[in-house]
Amino acid sequence: MSLWRKLAGVVLGLVLCASVAANWLAPAGYARQYREATNAPPSRTHWLGTDEIGRDRFARVLYGTRISLLLAPAAALLSTLMAAFVGGLAGYLGGAWARMAMAVTDLFLSLPWLFLLITARALMPLNVSPLVSVLVTFLLLGLLGWTTAARVLCATAGSLRTSDFVRQARAAGLPGQRLFWVHVMPNVKPVLYAQFWISIPVFILSEANLGILGLGVAEPMPSWGSLLKELEGLVSVGEEPWKFVPLILLVVVVTSFQLLLSKQEEVAA
Amino acid sequence: MQSLRWKIAGHALALLATVLLGGLLSATLVRLAPGFDVDERELDPHLNAQSVQALRDARHQDHNVFRFYFSYMKRAAHGELGTSLALGQPVRTLLRDRAPLTLRLLVMGLGLAWMLTLTLALSAAWLRLSVYDTLTTVVSGTFLCIPAAVLALLSVLWNVPGSLAIALIVFPHTYRYARNLLVKAYSRPHIITARAKGLGEARILFWHVVPVVTPQLLAVAGVSVSMAIGAAIPVEALCGLAGIGQLAWQAALARDLPLLVNITILVTLVTLLANSGADVIGCVARRQEA
Questions:
Q1: Does the bond joining A220 to the residue before it have cis omega, within 30 degrees of 0?
Q2: Could you say which of A122, A172, B107, B273 has the lowest number of CB atoms within 10 Å?
Q3: Cβ separation of B153 and A113 shorter than 8 Å?
Q4: Closest residue of chain A to B225, computed from CA coordinates
Q5: Residue A113 Cα to chain centre, angstroms
Q6: What percent of chain A has pLDDT over 70?
Q7: H/E element holding A230?
Q8: How many CB atoms lie within 10 A of CB B241?
Q9: DSSP labels for B170-200?
Q10: Which tens digit of pLDDT belongs to each residue from B173-196?
Q11: Percent of chain A beyond pLDDT 90?
C-alpha cells in the first residue's frame, strides 16, 4: 500500500470517527438555535461560527458528514445488489434476456445522471419529514445508480457463462440455480466490491448536488448538500472563509476515496 | 460500406426506440408522482362548479399515461408539443427561445473542456515528467471531487461565464481518459522507435498517434456531450441563465408533465445522437486506419 493510500485511509478513518462521535463532540446538536449569536464568526464556543438562524456550524458539519458517510455506502450497497441481480443474471442467461436488460440500462444511461436524478427526486414527495427526505434521497441514489455497474457485471457474467469450468459443470449436470450461485457469483465478487466502493464518492457528490439545488435532505437535518447551499449567499470568497469548511471537507473525503479506490477502478474496468 | 450502412441503420433504430421509451418513462414517472392531479386554479373562489369541472375534464385525458403519451406523440408528429402547465406558454416556444443559450453554453463549455484536456494530456504524454503528470492529475482530481453545483456557485461568486463552469465539470472526466490513451499510445514500440530515430514530434503525433487514439477519443467526446448537458442544469439553475437546463429544473420542480416529457425526449435525442455520431465517425476512422 502506497503512502498516499495509507494517508487517505487514515483521513477517512478520522473523519468517520469524528462524525460518529458527533454526539460527544457537539453535544448541543445540529438544530439548537443560539438566537443571540446569529451569523456569528468562529469563536471558542462556535468553532466554525453559526448560520443565519444561529445554529452551530461545527455541529452541523459533523452531523451532516455522518449522514453522508453512513448513508452513501448504504445506497451503494443497494445499487450494487441491484446491479448484481440484473447484470449478473442477464449475463449468465445471455441471449434475449441479456439484450432486454441491456436495453433497459441503455435507456437509463442515455439520460445524463444529474438530469435523471433531479427529475426523479422532484417527482418524489418534497414536503416530508427530514428523516424521510434523507431516506428518499439516498434510496433514489441506490435505485438509479445501478446501471453502469450492471453493464460491467453483465459482461463479466457473460464471459464466465462461456468459460470452461462453467461448461464443464453444466455438462456434469449441475442445476442452473446452483451453477449461478456457487460458480458464477463468487467469481464476480471482485467486480462487485469494486463497483460498491466506486459508487460511494459518486453518491456523496450526487447528494451534494441535489442538496444545493434544493432537492436533497430537508431542514433542519444537515447534509453536505444543505451545508454547501450556504455558499449561495456569499458575496466574496474572503468575506466568510469558514463557510468553505464543508466544501474542503467534502473534497478531502472524496479525494481520499479516489486515492483508496485507484486499485478498485482497475478491477471494475 | 454495407456494414457501415447497417451500423447506421441499427443506431437509428436503437435511437428511435430509446427516445420513445425515455419519453414514456418520464411521462409514467410524472403520472405516478404525488400531487400530480392537483390544480391550484380549482381553489380560485371566482370559479363556479362548472368551471372547476371543466378544469378537471381538461386534465382527465392525462390520467391514463399511455393515452396521454399516444395523443402527445400524434400531436408531436404535427409539430404540436403542448402547453407548459407551470409557465402557461407553448412548449415549442419555450424550447425555441431557450435552446440558443444552452447550445452556446454547451458548445463553448465543451470546446474549452477539450482544449484543456488535449493540451494537458498531450503535454503530459510528451514531457513524461512525473512531477508534471502528478500536478495535472492532482488538478483534474480536485475538480472531480467538487460537486457540479458548487462549481456553478463559485462561477457566480467569481463572476466567470457559465461555459467555464461547464468546462471545469467536464474536463476532469475527459482528461483521465485522454491522458491514459495518449500515454499508452506514446509507449507503443513503433512510436518509441520513431522517437529514437529522431522523427519530429509533429510528424509522430499526426502520423502515428492521432490515427490510433482517434476512435477512442471520439467515443469519449460523445460521452462528454451527455456530461455537459447534465452539468448545464445546475449551472443554468444557479447562475440564473434562462436555458433548457433551467427549464428542466423548473419543469421537474413544478411537475410540469408536457414540458418534462419534451425535455426528456430532447435530452435523450441529443445524447444518443452525439454517442451514435461519435461511434459512426470512430468506425470510419478505424476503417481508414486499417
A1: yes
A2: A172
A3: no
A4: A112
A5: 13
A6: 97
A7: none
A8: 20
A9: HHHHHHHHHHHHHHHHHTSHHHHHHHHTT--
A10: 999 899 999 989 988 898 889 888
A11: 36
Count the neighbouring beta carbons within 10 Å of the beta carbon of residue B253.
19
- Smallest Cβ distance to A258: which of B25, B145, B264? B145
Is residue B56 within 8 A of residue B283, CB to CB? The reply is no
Q: For residues A216 and A2, what is the distance between their CA atoms, to the nearest angstrom? A: 36
Tens of pLDDT, residue by residue over B44-58, are: 777 788 888 887 777
Nearest by CB to B230, from A115, A120, A234: name it: A115
Report ipTM (2 d.p.): 0.88
* Rama region for A173: left / alpha / beta (φ>0; ψ in -120 to 50; rest): left
- φ/ψ bin of A94: left (φ > 0), alpha (ψ from -120 to 50), beta (otherwise): left
Tell me phi and psi for residue B84, to 5 degrees.
Answer: -65, 130
Q: Say whether pLDDT at B27 is over 80.
A: no
Spatial separation of the C-alpha atoms in residues B79 and B233, rounded to whole Å = 25
Distance CA B19, CA A30 (A): 45
Question: CB pairs under 8 A, 24+ apart, for B213-218?
Answer: B213/B181, B213/B182, B213/B185, B214/B282, B214/B285, B214/B289, B215/B282, B215/B283, B215/B285, B215/B286, B216/B177, B216/B181, B216/B282, B217/B177, B217/B178, B217/B181, B218/B278, B218/B279, B218/B281, B218/B282, B218/B285
The beta-carbon neighbor of A110 closest among B237, B248, B271 is: B271
| DSSP letter for each residue of B53-69 | HHHHHHHHTTSSHHHHH
By the 8 A CB rule, do A229 and A246 touch?
Answer: no
Q: What is the tens place of the pLDDT at every residue in A141-154?
A: 999 899 888 988 88
Residue B227 and residue B151 in contact, taking contact as beta carbons nearer than 8 Å = no
* Average pLDDT rounded to a whole number, residues B70-90: 81
User: Which letter, b or e, does each residue of A185-201 get, where b requires 16 or more Cβ atoms within 10 Å of its Cβ?
Assistant: beebeebbebbbbbbbb
Average pLDDT, chain A: 88
Residue A128 and residue A121: Cα distance in Å, rounded? Answer: 13
Q: Which cell is A157 given? A: 457474467
- From the CA of A188, how many Å to the nearest CA of chain B? 25
Q: What is the length of chain B?
A: 290
